[in-house]
Amino acid sequence: MTKTELDSTLELLALSGRTDQPALPPALNTRALTAAEFQGLAAVPPELEWFANLTNAKTRRAYQQDIKDFTAFVGIARPEEFRIVTRPHVIAWRKDLEQRNLALSTIRRKLAALSSLYEYLCEQNAVADNPVDGVKRPKANYNEGLTPALGDAQARALLSAPPENTLKGKRDRAILATLLYHGIRREELCRLSVRDLHHRDGVMHLRIEGKGDKIRFLPVSVKALRLIQEYLEAAGHGEDLAGPLFRPVKNNTTGTLNKPLHPTSVYKEVVRFYGQQVGINSTVHGFCVHSLRATAATNALEHNADIAKVQEWLGHANVSTTRLGC
User: Fold this and answer.
1) Cβ neighbours of residue 172 closer than 8 Å, sequence gap 6 or more
2) Helix or strand (DSSP H, E) at 107
3) What is the DSSP letter of 210?
């Protein structure tokens, strides 16, 4: 496959990955590709498949530039040459990025893009291992945005603040764990129903309804699952699948408890309430529910998670938002 053919195929793949393209009429669906295009796609190497699978346009543009930067540095001319890249090549590229005085967060994103490519190649058995593994990534300031993240000790203190022996305490521990471990928004948490906690492929997931009615599924952390189950057992509504997952424990106005929590209540009566108890409100300027979301993002990125996957996990439309951890 020549460079011109690769460029044409890449363009076709990028177009096919867009979600804003109008659907073809049914009569044309069977004739959407020419014979040449069909043969070209049949020969697409996994390196280009990875690029096509980046469905978010902004992430695709950012990662495309990052991979182009790497290929230009090491002199890759054909996709198959990615398979002979070694860790020293990646280390040399990282040093070059540092010498260009790029932002630390930019260097991390570029390394994450390359790592994402090689993770896919490993899954496709195109390479034996990921040459980015073991390459030290600079620590970037994920708190450079407006939302501060918590340190590990602060997160543990906050999660331990609600009492273990009351219904409200069990509920609030489950709420804080859900926010801290999964990085969902408070509005998303309040929309959760009992049935949104369910198995997918043998793994317990949360079904999250995000902005723009977009649905995403998140594997539930072991600790959060345990705390949610303890809360449901104490509250007694675990079989009410259509009902809200997190509910008030008292209602002095109408007495109705079978209703979702209000996002303001989650902010004031859970996050800020226990933040005050453990001293986070005064030590972390701007501490709010989004701080727990930023904490989840920061923790994932600091453990070298693929930024595109974290972006999807958080429901961000822009990869740069994920990079800021907010």
Assistant:
1) 162, 270, 274
2) helix 104-123
3) -
The full DSSP string for 142-182 is TT-SSSPPPPHHHHHHHHH-S-SSSHHHHHHHHHHHHHHHH
Q: What is the DSSP letter of 76?
A: -
d(CA 15, CA 171): 46
263: how many CB neighbours lie within 10 A of its CB?
A: 16
Residue 196 DSSP one-character state: G
Q: Which whole number is the average pLDDT over 36-44?
A: 54
Which residue segments constitute the domains of the chain, with CATH numbers given? 3-20+32-123 (no CATH), 152-323 (1.10.443.10)
By the 8 A CB rule, do 45 and 79 touch? yes
pTM: 0.56
Q: How confident is the model at residue 269 (pLDDT cuts 50, 70, 90)?
A: very high
Residues in contact with 203: Cβ distance below 8 Å, sequence separation at least 6, in sequence order: 219
* Spatial CB neighbours of 238, under 8 Å, sequence gap ≥ 6: 194, 229, 232
Q: Which pLDDT value is given to residue 312?
A: 58
